[in-house]
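Q: I have two molecules that I believe assemble together. Could you output structure tokens for the complex as a whole instead of separate predictions?
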Amino acid sequence: MPIIQYDNVCKKFDNSGRLAVDHVSAQIEKGEFITILGSSGCGKTTLLKLTNRLYDPDEGKVLVDGENIANVDPVALRRRLGYVIQQVGLFPHMTIRDNITVIPQLMKWDKKRMDERADELLTLVGLAPSEYRDRYPHQLSGGQQQRVGLARALVLDPEILLMDEPFGAIDAITRLNLQNEFMKIQEGLGKTILFVTHDINEAFKLGSRVMVMNEGKLLQFDTPAEIVKNPADSFVRSLIEAARSQEEFWENVR
Amino acid sequence: MVQKIAEYIATHPQQLAEQIAAHIGISLFALFVAALIGIPCGCLAAKLQKGEAVITAPFEMLRVVPSLAVLILLIPIMGTGVPPAVTALMILAVPPVLLNTIVGFRTIPDFMIESARGIGMTESELFWRVKIPCALPMILAGLRTALVEVVASTTLAAKIGAGGLGEIIFTGLGLYRMDLLVLGGGLVAILSLASGWVFDILTRRMLRYKYV
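A: Yes, here they are, computed for all two components at once.
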């Protein structure tokens, strides 16, 4: 049974003439690292938000663990799915520890368990707990904030992680480090990940399978190697050619 | 003049202390009522997409009426003493609190709210844990503006027998006593500045995270 299944999902926004997500069907197996690739406005973020009911589909359905999420309480669903966004969205008035454990606090975990969990997660994402747990978000760099964002998403140990361009606003060097570290973390955790990005290199590097989207449609959903070998249509081909031409620049300089 | 003022302070310590206490009491009470009205109305107005003016317009129209006129107009309804004084001052204090509350809620970034929902907060958890704290700096700034204005204007309360430092000033006006005018006016000015200063200290305490 697929852990996430999109069944002819459509979403239309009131102010737009076309569908933001246009009859998307796809199945994701447990433990897969799926990247969703497309330019801005292609519907990739919308598809992600349809997965944790930040949006509800106008047509079709989304199944998580075989269950139509339209019938699941959104708050309960979201606590089962980790969620990380580009702007991180740490709460400025809470310490790093409180940011990580904000949902456990609401669920009335005991203090000791929360402190241990926060320290454990800080260590996992590569921040020394003793140094960072009592700081406030504005005292951290963008890359460090995103590490905390990841820790916060992992606090309830969700099976699925939804990530919306998490490294999009981070400089190239830090981004590379974060990507590599995140791949390592993922190997240990074995989560199912949906990772939205507009960066083809990031999508192909991280994804075990890649969803290529354009204008709301899912054009191709396959392994990176297969997409490069057999692009589904002219859009996918042009995407790959664009990435290649960048590559050429570096080759020529060498 | 300085000697006269010193003499007055020396001979009326009890009375002065009472006037200062009444002045502070009336001001704080008016601010409290203004907060009780302005903050919830601000929350509500920030939620309404277009109907915001329905809430803000009445308060802004009332604000235009001079406080002295409000006091006189209130006499037939509320009589004299503290209640009409607090009402008139409250009318003065609500707009800054109300408008700042609206701005405070409106300027919370969308992504902050999205991330709170995304990690699984209910709407009420989102409101109390995220929206209120994020809007708090603006709300406090509005309260501060209102406080300083109210402390200065509480002078008028003496006009309808509610007490406060206005008593010294109005006595001075009646008797052409410059020393009383300077003393009363000076004390009001000091009180007004000091209240802003004390409020800043409290604000820094409440928003400690901003200053680390």
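A: One point stands out. The two ends of chain B are 47 Å apart (CA to CA).
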